[in-house]
Structures are given as structure tokens and as C-alpha cells.
């Protein structure tokens, strides 16, 4: 009986997934599960087991998947109208994760093929230019952070207080009691921070 129920569930799942008129919600969930959830767990296992071969396999996968996602961001509105697009995407994500087999070279480690044949040559040709752009962008980010360090610290303090309050609320415990002196010091500290921020903006 359990075997029949399992077979029935599998058949229904395949019909929902492979039906040309299947719901996009089902297909997107399947793509998310196969493309992200399974690889994340597999990467975790490879790291914990210190398996170098598996680590390299999933590094290649994430390089291929990241490149695909980058392209998809700019073309999703266009290609999503292609008939059976999410079916093709699901098949592509499965192909990226295929293990080595001796049946047909095309089915051997799709992520490795994509990396070796396309990504690696591209990055080797443009490596110097990419490093220059990334270095410049990183420098601008550091300058931005240094210029607005007080604001970042202020919002960080507020964020941590919100997280702390939410944590106590979810645990059902009472609000942590703080001495009046410490509370007064915190208020004075926040007032000083706000004054510093306003002074920076005036400058």
C-alpha cells in the first residue's frame, strides 16, 4: 500500500512538472529546489567531509549557476515568454549537476563543461580589466563607508535593538531590565551620534 502511494505521488509530481501547461509556481519551486536548495546542502556536505573532489565539483557548479543567474536577470522578462522556458531551465539545472558518465560526453558534468569551454576562456581574456573594475568599485565602497561611518553605526545600533526586542518577544520572555544609569547613558550616546550626523550633513 505504501509503495502504491509512493508511486502515485511520484507520478502526480512528474505530471505537474512535465505538463506543458503546468503552473509556473510548481516549475519555479522545482527550479529553486534543484538549482539552489540541493546544491547548498551538497556544498555543506562537501565542506564538512573535506572532500576535495566534491568541493571542486560544487565550486564549478556555483560559477556556472552564478553566470546563468546574471544573464537571466537581464533577460528574464524576454525569455520567460518562451514556451516551456521553465521546463528548459529545470533541465539545464539538472544538466549542470550531472555526474561523470561514460555514455555520452555531453552528459558529463555540465557545469564543468560550461566552465572549461566558455567561462574560463572568457575570464582569462578579460581578467586584467575585470580586476581593475572590481578594485575601483571596492575602493569607492570603502570611501562611501568611511564618509558615512557615523550613519552606519547609528543604523547598526537601531537594527541590533530591533533584533534583540524581536528575539525576546518570540521567546516570550520579559524585556531585559537595564539600570536607569545605563539607559540614560545610551540615550545620551544616541543623542551625541544624531548630533554628529546632523553636523556632518550641515558641513
TrEMBL record:
InterPro entries: TB2_DP1_HVA22. Residues 173-203 are annotated as: Disordered. Pfam families: TB2_DP1_HVA22. GO terms for cellular component: membrane. It is found in: Membrane. Its main location: membrane. It is a multi-pass membrane protein. It comes from the Eukaryota. Residues 179-196 have a biased composition (Polar residues). Belongs to the DP1 family. This is HVA22-like protein. The lineage of its organism: Eukaryota, Viridiplantae, Streptophyta, Embryophyta, Tracheophyta.
